[in-house]
Specification:
Elements lengths: L1 H11 L25 H10 L2 H5 L18 H18 L4 H10 L8 H11 L6 H12 L10 H8 L9 H24 L10 H7 L3 H15 L8 H19 L2 H4 L2 H17 L6 H10 L1 H10 L3 H12 L8
Helix pairs in contact: 2-5, 4-5, 4-9, 4-11, 5-8, 5-9, 6-14, 7-8, 8-9, 9-11, 9-12, 10-12, 11-12, 14-16, 14-17, 15-16
Length: 329
């Protein structure tokens, strides 16, 4: 079955698409799967890993929103996956690799969204970047420290999904899909939260991209597909408006006190947890104590906190730093 799928890739995918049979391979050699290609195995390993499951309890933009329909880091990941898959299929690229990168691109993200990322970055020597932590999670933390042993192509796409150009076109697709997904679902969530009014988007945006979320996503995805070329990109007219929309969202939502008022509390929470665990490595779970012994206490504390969900981080802070009522035992 695997050999048949590899042959099908050569017959049906674009010449510039990544071919699983030509993968640069894994850090540790292992026997090929008789049923799945190398990229399909990557995708499946990510879906079944603990870090992927924890994404359902991590903030996307709004901290602890009241309501069932706000995005989490997991639902964001699934929307990126869907958009990237559509683009890859339309361009005859390798959907399996695209899916693996999309599903894994945020597995190293902190609790509390980018507020948590900034807070941890202010603590860790050398800073903290979630895309690097996603790679580290796949290579060093998952599977009891053995890692997922993903292919070089999947790891490269994960590492480059924010601000670098991936080596594969599939990785480049995910970078655009990530931006298309978050800009549109953040608009919807901001309107639901009352941070952004219906009809508040600039006229240039609605005129070019449409007024509905589905219209905007379709316009952006179509612009990526129409661009073609050696590097994945976006039709220049649409890209210009897309950049205007991003600037608008940055000012109206991402810096809006109504949406971000609670984020100042994240800084202190992350800081206190980090310094506590860096100084008390005996309180870390066994896997992270091992990291402390091999790579240092600060590295272990960073890994542990980055892997926390929002609620676990809050509970951990509560247990460590808030007093309890005295009880007779």
């Amino acid at each position: 079955m695997r050999e048949m799928l590899e042959t099908r890739e050569w017959e049906h995918l674009a010449p510039t698409a990544a071919k699983s049979a030509q993968s640069k391979g894994r850090e540790r050699q292992e026997p090929s799967c008789p049923l799945r290609t190398a990229f399909q195995r990557d995708r499946d390993r990510i879906i079944h890993c603990k870090a992927f499951r924890r994404l359902k309890h991590k903030t996307q933009v709004f901290l602890a929103p009241e309501g069932d329909h706000y995005r989490t880091r997991l639902t964001h990941t699934l929307e990126v996956y869907q958009i990237a898959d559509t683009i890859a299929r339309s361009l005859s690229l390798n959907q399996d690799l695209t899916e693996a990168i999309a599903l894994g691109h945020d597995i190293g993200h902190t609790p509390f969204g980018h507020a948590g990322e900034r807070a941890l970055g202010n603590c860790v020597p050398g800073g903290f970047r979630h895309y690097e932590q996603s790679v580290r999670t796949a290579r060093r933390i998952e599977n009891d420290g053995a890692g997922l042993n993903l292919t070089a192509e999947t790891l490269d796409g994960i590492r480059c999904h924010t601000n670098l150009s991936a080596e594969t076109k599939e990785g480049q697709v995910v970078r655009f899909a990530d931006r298309i997904a978050y800009i549109n679902h953040d608009i919807e969530d901001a309107i639901r939260a009352g941070v952004l009014a219906e009809g508040a988007l600039p006229e240039a945006v609605t005129h070019t991209l449409g007024r509905k979320k589905s219209e905007r996503i379709n316009a952006m995805v179509s612009a990526v597909i129409a661009h073609g070329g050696e590097q994945i990109g976006m039709d220049q007219t649409v890209f210009t408006v897309f950049e205007q929309l991003h600037a608008f969202m940055f000012e109206q939502v991402y810096k809006n006190p109504a949406a971000k008022g609670e984020e100042c509390k994240v800084e202190e929470l992350i800081k206190r947890l980090y310094h506590y665990f860096a100084a008390h490595t005996d309180k870390l779970p066994p896997d992270y104590r091992r990291i402390s012994e091999e790579e240092g206490a600060e590295c272990a504390a960073c890994d542990y906190i980055a892997g926390m969900t929002d609620q676990f981080a809050l509970q951990c802070y509560d247990d460590l730093f808030l007093p309890r009522a005295w009880q007779i035992r």
